[in-house]
């Protein structure tokens, strides 16, 4: 019987962001505990991730940026930006987090649906700077590496985290074989994502929506813009930057989605391309986060009849 792959390591708990930081180890601890007690627990195959080689990061980040993170961590930790504290082990753990996404890619390519439960998240990390709780750009790296696979000629990323994934966009905008699409609260952190910032490759679809947006309006944007664009692009792989801070109960943002709305989006994306990799970004209400991750996995289990 085939199972649903979950990439996770206890190592991710060692990335210490300090007292009361919203992006803390409790997020993953809650999700893992919830899944292990869930009725779907017998369908899950837990996989320990590999670390990526630093050289692989040079595909998406500058050596100065990588060196900066490494030296701050080697010196005992500090701040990469005002919101992004790191401890002495964070550099190493960020290499495992990026590695987890690449291992997830491997699972999906081999026909195993997969969710990557890793931290630190990545979608705010730009080519030359870490920011917004993110150290390295996991989704962008995965998209670029996927294109090295013979059967993968086009990759679509859909970023349903409530924040615009400025980092992913910043890195993939130069690559016409990657489509980056995002629905996000605007105006809001990080300040980007108002429009399709560059028409150079016509590969960015930003859908900014106002604070207070409910599913009723969100779903119009999702179906009419995101689903249409991704279908037309006809990708060989979809990567979902799955943050859950667009949830009604999230403390950091002001969209009003429910957990089941993430489930509906999951099924629609799988219908376009069953090779779809889900990877964790934000999401800071533990109940909303855990329920939403479970629903995304449940919808995969239903879709693939696992
Ligand atoms: Zn977010």
Give a structural overview.
It contains nine helices and ten strands. It is α/β, with parallel strands linked by helices and 306 residues long. The strands form two sheets. An eight-stranded parallel β-sheet has the order 2-1-5-10-9-6-7-8, with helices on both faces. A two-stranded antiparallel ribbon has the order 3-4. Helix 8 (259-272) links the parallel strand 9 and strand 10. It is globular. Residues 161-163, 243, 245, 281-282 line the site of zinc ion. The site of zinc ion (ZN) has 7 residues, from loops.
Q: Write the CATH homologous superfamily.
A: Histone deacetylase domain
Instruction: Sum up the overall morphology in one term.
Output: globular
Order of helices and strands: EHEHHEEHEHEHEEHEHEH
Number of domains: 1
Major sheet details: 8 strands, parallel
User: Regions with pLDDT < 50 over 5+ consecutive residues?
Assistant: none
CATH architecture: 3-Layer(aba) Sandwich
Helix content: 25-40%
Beta strand count: 10
Q: Distance between termini?
A: 7 Å
- At CATH level 3, the topology is Arginase, Chain A
Order of strands in the sheet with most strands: 2-1-5-10-9-6-7-8
Report Rg.
17 Å
User: Regarding CATH, which class?
Assistant: Alpha Beta
Round the mean pLDDT to the nearest integer and report it: 97
SS-derived structural category: alpha/beta
Q: Note the total helix count.
A: 9
